[in-house]
Amino acid sequence: MDSTSPEPSLYTVKAVFILDNDGNRLLSKYYDPDLYPSMKEQKNFELNIFNKTHKADNEIAFLEGLTIVYKSSIDVFFYVVGSAQENELMLMSVLNCLFESLNQILRKNVERRGLLDNMDGVFLVVDEIVDGGVVLESDPQQVLQKVNYRADENPLTEQSMAQVLQSAKEQIKWSILK
């Protein structure tokens, strides 16, 4: 094996973010703390990507030594960022899962207003797909099942939020006791 090849890693995703049609951040999650450590650097990076991609018809961009896959819908842009050596198909499966999951939650109306109104569900979806840069799920139906979403209900009810908080408390308690 070539000694210059990077070691295989589960940490495939460097960042996931959603921008509106003006390039403003709606959601962003950076999984590599060394990539862009400050908020200013992150916003500059996002603006550079937006300027390069908002009029393009492609699905893949390469910028600053990173592989970026993206998709737009009405007035929002979805981005998944990986290293330069990352498999574009893997990043694209994350992007498609994110988009299809949100498409189900927002009842096929993926636009800025709907995302802002359901931001709690959007964060849950992103967290179910990627955790710390590791891809956990790429099937939208599994993601929706895990976030306890039903097409005939609101994405989050008070009951399901209480269950999420209780589960988080239990996990923290057990991690401290170990």
Number of strands: 7
Mean pLDDT: 84
Question: What is the CA–CA distance across the termini?
Answer: 39 Å
Protein structure class: alpha+beta
Oligomeric status? single chain
Strand content: 15-25%
The CATH architecture name reads 2-Layer Sandwich
Q: Please give the share of residues in helix.
A: 40-55%
Number of separate domains: 1
Keywords: Cytoplasm, Cytoplasmic vesicle, ER-Golgi transport, Golgi apparatus, Membrane, Protein transport, Transport
Main location: cytoplasm
GO cellular component, one term: Golgi membrane
Subcellular location: Cytoplasm; Golgi apparatus membrane; Cytoplasmic vesicle, COPI-coated vesicle membrane
Describe the structure.
It is globular and about 45 Å long. The protein has a single domain (15-147), classed as Beta-Lactamase (2-Layer Sandwich). It is built from 6 helices and 7 strands, in the order E-E-H-E-E-E-H-H-H-E-E-H-H. The longest helix has 20 residues, at 158-177. Strand 6 and strand 7 (134-135) form a beta hairpin. It has 178 residues and is α+β, with helices and mostly antiparallel strands. InterPro entries: AP_mu_sigma_su, Coatomer_zeta, Longin-like_dom_sf. Oligomeric complex that consists of at least the alpha, beta, beta', gamma, delta, epsilon and zeta subunits.
